Amino acid sequence: MEDFQMTTYVAFIRAINVAGHASVKMNELKRVFVAAGCGDVRTFVQSGNVLFEVPEPDAEAVFEKVRIELRKLLKAEPTVLFRKLREICRMVEQNPFKELDHDSDAKLYVTFLSRKPGAKPNFPIRSPKEGLEAIGVEDLEVFIVSRRKENGYFGFPNNFIEKELGVLATSRNRSTVKKVARMAEG
Predict the structure, then answer these.
(1) Which CATH architecture has domain 6-78?
(2) Of 172, 96, 101, which Cα lies nearest the Cα of 135?
């Protein structure tokens, strides 16, 4: 039997623990990943972020097992977007939001796409009503700025991006993505 290098992945699960929808305890989520064959499973905040390790050649099979176990737990079809942790760390290091780091009137989001859009989008893509602006894309990640609306709230980009690009997605605040990347450090 060959000895394969373990690769750390992040699973971003769409629409769990949001406004009472698909409530899942983190210990249940961890159990799902362990049952699917993942090692060193760690969860981060309640919104469905899971770090885990698998041997690279087994990754796709393990991803499918995770989906099956989540389907049983949620009693619905889950949308799970898998990324290598090193890709997340690289994205954070490159900081696509450099120009906006000190803009207190903006919330910054990364939207993870389930696949490439059918047509190449022209950026920026704006939704003035929601105060959203998709400023760019790299691989399967879209970078979004949310500006405070007249009512004082910020728009949330997920539905906007799914509609504009025709692709299932899940969004995370930039600070959450940075914290997930830092988990690799310890």
Answers:
(1) 2-Layer Sandwich (3.30)
(2) 96
Quick one: which of 54, 58, 46, 52 has its CA closest to 21?
46
For 78: left if phi > 0, alpha if psi spans -120 to 50, otherwise beta; the answer is: beta
DSSP H or E run through 7: strand 6-13
β pairing state of 49-55 and 6-13: antiparallel
Reduced to 3 states (helix: H, G, I; strand: E, B; else coil), residue 5 is coil
- Tell me the domain boundaries of the chain: 6-78, 94-183
Give CA–CA dist 173/129, Å, rounded. Answer: 20
CA distances (Å), origin 148, targets 16, 21, 157, 162? 25, 25, 13, 21
Give tens-digit pLDDT for 111-166.
999 999 988 889 999 999 999 999 999 999 999 999 988 888 898 899 999 999 99
- Global pTM value: 0.91
Task: Kindly state the tokens that stand for 77.
Answer: 């079809």
Distance CA 68, CA 121 (A): 32
- Classify the C-alpha dihedral 49-51-55-56 as positive or negative: positive
